[in-house]
């Protein structure tokens, strides 16, 4: 009993240290810091929405005259159909967007890493089955599929998260799988196997830590993609009808004729909200990519020194400097066309 | 390209299609024991239970939902192999194929034009950015790409329709529905279509141009480090010859991949844009079907989109393996 407690304690400490180190690295990266700050502001807005927002948009008694222009009473005016304060709605909207994005992103990270590692490390029929499922899910168009699922199962947040996670893990699983196949052949993994380590031990202690950075990076990017998709879904009127979300605010503004009346603020406000949320998560993801892959670092002194030499040589220099980049270098030259994680971006852009 | 590779690839495609159809058949049946129960008329006070049972039975027959689920499945598959996707529940009960055939060309007008514009302009901009690496052209492309990926295309579309459509009245913000019904192949009709399609195409193409530009840039930079480019430069070839004759040709492989992926999304990729501009395409058809709980139509559209994507993927793989003989089954993925 004591032993188990100590082990879990150690593990938790390890995880916390990892997270702390990750934030430290991000903070040092200029672009990453921008992302972190915006995410922090949005998170504060989401958590303390009732304290920050001047009005409660869910409260029917706190509605003002419909379609007011921006003033000191209503910073961004009021909505045309209901007379809710748009600034308050904007702050409350951060709740649904951020929570769905982050929760789905983490669920996808868990699903994708489990299935990706299983497919890559175990190989054989496990790999075949998982990759065939990926093939099937990649072919079916995502947005229509999600629409059908919400039609059948209802439009609560739980359903939306489950549907996005159930159909969104494929890209990540593929990236993780190809990374695992490279790590599988590394000497330290082979050594552990020869010494008699079980498959679970190898997967847990060697494979998972080796892909964890990639995992964090792609979680940030998938969260950004899910936020766009969620906004699109609620823009189509297929999100949670009771909650306030940025996509729904846009749809309301469009359908109530905000354009005819020239109420540009009621269109711009939720759009800026969506943009900030997606942008900040993308920034964090891309900053992570640059931290992980030193060849993408801009303006480093090494680059200036070797500026006149050709890139192949540069690759070798960096490869010897960093084990991780050596792996991805082999990956590219082995004929597999996509560098890790580029598939993620394509998918989020496609929705 | 080996024959065994081709056969393996085709068999895999057929298998995936079979699974997709099965999925599409069972999705509307999740959570309901009797899918026809959605369409039963309410039981009136004067109706006995036996009479109501008869009405239920008739409803099931009308919607083709009689018999056990397995029988329905076999019937559905049988129809599918005869090229019949069933009948829509809309008034007049048109066949699903007819509905799709009516809307498909309008979606293709948008998406094909968008794809071609994105590809051509994107490749040109990307090559320029790679050539001026680190200068303002490159930085502008990088900033544009972060902005357009973070801005959902439907928000860009809303802004465009607000400013270009309502405020400045340059392009129509809503599609003129007469354009669809009165379409004959006259020049005037075609120009009306292009005039109406300008805003939807433009709002989709902004993201496409930048994404093609970015991947072209990365690919060109990766290739321009290779030795044969150095040789070409050392031979004393002009800049233009090095770019278009050597670099761009070899940098095309990732672009082909991206192009193939976009082709598979040609039909299903413009749902939200079509809704904003009231465009009479597949997306609008799908959303209307969703509003009417018209499951045969929804499933038919999904199966059609998936089949289109499958064929596109298959062709892309073949083209790719012709361009790059190192590719074998599944390796590109």
Report on this model:
- The complex is a heterodimer of chains A (about 350) and B (about 325).
- Chain A is mainly alpha-helical and about 350 residues long.
- Chain A has helices at about 1-30, 30-45, 50, 85-120, 125-140, 140-155, 155-170, 170-185, 185-195, 200-235, 245-255, 260, 265-290, 300-305, 310-320, 325-335, 340-350.
- Chain A contains 17 helices and no strands.
- Chain B is mainly alpha-helical and about 325 residues long.
- Chain B has a domain at about 95-295: MetI-like (MetI-like fold, Orthogonal Bundle).
- Helix content of chain B is about 70%, strand content about 0%.
- Chain B contains 14 helices and no strands.
- In chain B, helix 1 (about 5-25) packs antiparallel against helix 14, helix 4 (about 95-130) packs across helix 8 and helix 5 (about 135-150) crosses helix 8.
- Chains A and B meet through helix 5, helix 6, helix 10, helix 13 and helix 15 of A and helix 1, helix 5, helix 6, helix 8 and helix 11 of B.
Helix content of chain B: over 70%
If you compute it from the alpha carbons, what radius of gyration of chain A comes out, rounded to the nearest whole angstrom?
23 Å
Helicity range of chain A = over 70%
Shape call of chain A:
elongated
CATH class label of chain A: Mainly Alpha
Number of beta-strand segments of chain A: 0
How is the secondary structure organized here?
The complex is a heterodimer of chains A (351) and B (333).
Chain A (H helix, E strand, L loop, with lengths): L1 H27 L1 H18 L1 H4 L33 H37 L1 H16 L2 H12 L3 H12 L1 H15 L2 H8 L4 H37 L10 H10 L2 H4 L2 H29 L8 H5 L5 H11 L1 H11 L8 H9 L1
Chain B lengths: L2 H24 L22 H14 L6 H13 L14 H36 L4 H15 L2 H15 L10 H4 L5 H37 L3 H8 L4 H12 L1 H13 L6 H6 L5 H10 L3 H29 L10
Helix pairs in contact in B: 1-14, 4-5, 4-8, 4-14, 5-8, 6-8, 8-11, 9-10, 11-14, 13-14
